[in-house]
Structures are given as structure tokens and as C-alpha cells.
Write a structure and sequence with these properties.
Layout: E1 4-12, E2 17-19, H1 20-23, H2 31-38, E3 42-44, H3 52-67, E4 76-80, H4 91-99, E5 106-109, H5 115-129, E6 135-141, H6 154-157, E7 163-171, E8 178-186, E9 194-195, H7 209-213, E10 222-223, H8 225-246, E11 256-259, H9 264-274, H10 285-288, H11 295-305, E12 314-321, E13 325-332
Parallel strand pairs: 4-5, 4-6, 11-12
Antiparallel strand pairs: 1-7, 2-3, 6-7, 8-13, 9-10, 12-13
The structure holds acetyl coenzyme *A.
Residues 29, 33-34, 37-38, 112-113, 154-155, 158-159, 194, 225-226, 228-229, 232, 262-263, 266, 290, 292, 321-322 line the site of acetyl coenzyme *A.
Length: 333
Amino acid sequence: MRRSHILGVGHCVPEHVVTNQDLTRLMDTSDEWIQQRTGIRERRYSDGCTGASDMGAVAAKEALTRAGLDASAIQCIVFATLSPDVDMPASAFLLQEKLGMSGIPAFDVRNQCSGFVYSLAVADQFVKTGAYDYVLVVGSEVHSTGLDLSTRGRDVAVIFGDGAAAAVVGPSPDPDRGILSTHLHAEGKYAEKLWVEAPGSRLRPRLTEEMITGPDGRVFPHMEGRYVFRHAVVRLAEVIREALDANGVSAADLDLLIPHQANLRINQMVAGELGLRDEQVVNNIDRYGNTTAASIPLALYEALETGRLQPGMLVCLAAFGAGFTWGSALLRW
Ligand code: ACO
């Protein structure tokens, strides 16, 4: 079987920077609290009329340019998002239309913070088996229009930001380089630990004024933060080890870990658990917050742009998020 690789990466973040100080004008919080608990200094918010597919399309065009490919080369689109432009159809179709990729298969992956790793795994299978040559994988989120930006929602609202990034996956030009393995997991019994309950198909009516303005704020994300935090540290370390073991390498062999960006302290604890040094771990949560499906490809993009990620390096992507879901991918870049 041939090996697949990421051939080009692109990104798109809104221009509007929202600092922790800006949030103190909306809710009872402080720059000190947010920085100490999460490592976040600022995040980006869209203008309120930009959908996940709009940013995804910009990121995808850049990824195509970096890969040296025309849009017509793409044979399948996998779009990871928890914040689709509309309830239906999937954002993948809106993106397809914006990119002029009419006729090719396209679908959304709704796996929250693990969305990019899951989507990469899907693309890897398609390319490895020869089903498709080039698959476009996009991670894009517009969180800012769905957050409770009041003191009631402060525990969740301060951590999320908007952003997108995309990767073109295709046959590796070098059989020794590319995606070595992917590892995916989920545990649905924890679904209610981090979720947006409404609007939903099991509710009649699906949406009421009370769901928005009532004390429960059921249309906003709710999270048992400490519970999620503890699981994230354990599962991330576990799934990184799984990827290393599957390839007969150790953490010491790893050149770069690109973890999901949910909380800097989570990533520091995972690094400590695996005995990784700071320079082995890519973190950019300070500038973007948690952009969910976009976090990993955005960090990957920056690692490439800044020259931290070089050909031949062993790199691990690892994610944990709502579901719970978690996963990893090991690549020889
Ligand atoms: N500003 C000031 N105070 C706050 C804020 C805020 N923004 N938010 C909460 N607090 C207060 C709380 O009210 C609480 O006060 P109390 O002690 O008087 O009751 C205190 O700070 C501590 O609150 P905790 O929620 O226990 O704070 P914690 O240290 O756990 O940090 C956080 C919260 C940052 C959300 C953390 O739990 C976390 O990062 N969890 C994991 C997130 C994650 O990994 N998510 C998965 C990916 S996301 C996805 O898949 C979509």
C-alpha cells in the first residue's frame, strides 16, 4: 500500500483580536485568571457574518497553493467542524461550491477537538488504498457567535476562539515519509460532560426563548471543566504512547508534538508525563485560544512557517475533546 502525506497546509484567522482585557468588559473575569488557568492571552472573533466554510475556503486555497495543486486535483473533501454554517446541509458542500469543486464527494466530521485527527485518518485511508489521490481536509470553527459572553458562561467563553486551517493529503513523494499511523478513540458515556444541548431533534420545539435567556442557557456550551481536564491529560498521554509504540519509537525520538490547544496546562502536564522538553511541543493557544477542529492544523501551519517543522522530523499530532473523543497521528515529515 502506498503511503500518504500532508502536501500543503493553509490557514485563515479573523483579523479582529479579542484580548482577555476586552472580555473583562463583558463578564466578571480577569486577564490574570485566564492566563494562569489556560495560558490564553487573546483569541480571534469573526465579524458575525462569516461561516466556517468561508474561513475554510481561504485556508483551503492556501493549502492548495502550498501543495502546488489546482483545485481540480482534489477528489474528496472532509470538513471537520462543530460550528457548521447552517444546521443542514453540511459545511463541506458550502465549501465545495466556494472552491468550484463540483461533483466530488464531500462530508462533515462532527468530532469537536478531535475533528482534524479523525478527518486526517479518513483521508489517509482513502489515499493509502488508492481510492482517491488528493483529499482536502479542513478544520474550521466560528465559536464566537455561539458563546455565552456573560459571567454565567465565563468558564467556557474565555477559552474559545475562531479560526480555520486546511491540509491537502496525497501520495507521499518519498515512501519513508508521510503519515505512519493514526489512532482513534471515543467514549460516549461522557457526552454530557461537554455539550451544547439545544436546539436538538429530541426537543419539541427545538428552540425556545427560554433556552437562550433562561437560567440554564441550554443553547450555549456547558462543560465540567475539571472533569474534562483530568481526562484530557490521561487520554492524550495514552494515545501519544499508542502511536509511538505502534511504530517502535519512544518519546525521546519525537522531534515535535503538536497537541490540541485546549489549555496550556493540559499540554504542559502531558509533556511532563512523557518527559518531553518545551522545544518539542508546539503551543500557540496564547494567541488563538481553543479553535477546536482548527487548533492542530493551525499549529502545524505555524510550525512550518516558523521553520520549527523540518523534513525528516518525527511529529505527533494528538487531540482530545467533547464526546469524549481522542486520537493521534504519527508522521515522518
Ligand atoms: N474568570 C474568572 N473566574 C472564573 C472563570 C473566568 N473566566 N471561569 C470560572 N471561574 C471561577 C469559577 O467560578 C470558580 O470559582 P469558585 O472556586 O469560587 O467556585 C473558579 O474560577 C474555578 O473554576 P474551575 O472551573 O474549577 O476552574 P479550572 O481551573 O478548572 O479552569 C477551565 C477552568 C480553564 C475551563 C479548565 O477546567 C479546562 O481547561 N478544562 C478542560 C478544557 C478542555 O480540555 N476541553 C476539551 C476540548 S474542548 C472541545 O472538545 C470542544
